[in-house]
Amino acid sequence: MRIGILTGGGDAPGLNIAVYTLTKLLERKHEVYAIFHGWRGILDKEVRRVTSKDLIDFAFAGGTFIRTSRTNPFKDEARVEVFARNLKELGLDVIVAIGGDDTLSAAAQTQARGLANVVGVPKTIDNDVYGTDYTIGFDTAVNEAIKVTESFKTTLISHERIGVVEVMGREAGWIALFTGLATMADFVLIPEKPVNWDAVANKTKEVYRDRGWALVIASEGIREYGSPRDEFGHSRLGGVGNELAQYIEKVTGLEARAVVPGHIIRGVAPTAFDRVLAIRFVTEVFNAIECGDFGKMVAYREGDIIRVPITEVLGKNRLVDGYWMKLYETHWGP
């Protein structure tokens, strides 16, 4: 078969090893094609046959060698027509779509319209893909956020300041929660649990009086600024960390600073967990293709790798709840 592989949406550590490993498995029996720039690669016919030898030099780096974009191939009917025609001309029998909810939603439509068979792989540092406990890139992002926070903490102690670290996550607070737990932050703000900023200021002031410094972790999604939206309707986030630090300083009269590691936490080499997770995911993709089980997404559930219908995970976000929300409330609740 002719099998295409694409990476869509935001980049995440572990993508390159996923693409490399899947190519290595598939090339024994099939022709493998890299679809560059996500779904846009089909619209622009940026598709090239590759071998594992072409990809090995990039396998362990962050980012994605085959590039990415936030292109929605089903944005309008004119685009759908081009998309369908190009898919037919390219002759791809299967598309492996590695991405988050938006990328997977396009994969589901591609399958439903009979344009190509698809298999999905959950990827995003936000860890918000429904149906899987972990996504490619999350573990690495958290570990990098922890490094940044620990470095920042030393200057807070040295200068006796209050510090705010703003981390990515959109509507999901997973990165903030894990970073806050691992660094023993004094307060963590996540989108799933709205908190009055006066409560944060009062808490940090109490901590400061006790030891002379304080640390707050804030998820970017706790405030939206109405920026231009992408083709999937998402607004650009970022800026709440500095706003919160200024607010704390104004209310408490204490010196506060903010750092925003931003894209840095997703541009590094993947951790061992993300490397192994990526390999386990694409191995299951290979098995799915070999037995003709299409329209599925591979997922991590309680240590096992399984397949679930893509349609079951669409339109839902995996947010902090249940056990994890109780853990959050135990540490930072009222």
Pattern of helices and strands: EHEHEHHEHEHEHEHEHEHEEH
- The amount of helix comes to 40-55%
User: What structural class do the secondary elements suggest?
Assistant: alpha/beta
The CATH architecture name of the largest domain reads 3-Layer(aba) Sandwich
Contiguous low-pLDDT stretches (5 residues minimum) are none
| Strand elements, count | 11
Strand content: 15-25%
The average pLDDT is 95
The 3D shape can be described as: elongated
Largest sheet: 7 strands, mixed
Describe this structure as you would to a colleague:
The protein is an alpha/beta fold and 334 residues long. It folds into 2 domains: 2-136 and 270-312, Rossmann fold (3-Layer(aba) Sandwich); 139-267, 3-Layer(aba) Sandwich (Rossmann fold). Helix content is 41%, strand content 17%. It has helices at 15-26, 40-43, 52-55, 77-90, 101-112, 138-159, 174-183, 197-211, 240-252, 272-290, 322-332; strands at 2-7, 31-35, 47-49, 94-99, 117-122, 162-167, 187-189, 214-219, 256-259, 296-301, 304-309. Strands 3-2-1-4-5-10-11 form a 7-stranded mixed β-sheet, sandwiched between helices. Helix 1 packs parallel to helix 10 (272-290) and helix 8 packs across helix 9. The longest helix has 22 residues, at 138-159.
What descriptive keywords fit this protein?
single chain; 334 residues; Rossmann fold; 2 domains; 7-stranded mixed beta sheet; 17% strand
